[in-house]
Amino acid sequence: MFTPLSVVLLLIGLALIQPAHATDPCVRRATQADMNVCALQGFKEADAELNQTWVQVQPKVPRSARPQLVAAQRRWITFRDLHCDFAASLVPSPAAKEQTYQQCRRALTEERTGRLRAYRDPGGDIGSIDVGTADKALNDTYRQLFSEQQGIPRERLVKAERAWIRYRDAVCSFEQTRWAPDSLSADYYERCQQELTEEHTRTLTTLLQADRQDP
Question: pLDDT tens digits for 40-61?
Answer without folding.
Answer: 999 999 999 999 999 999 998 8
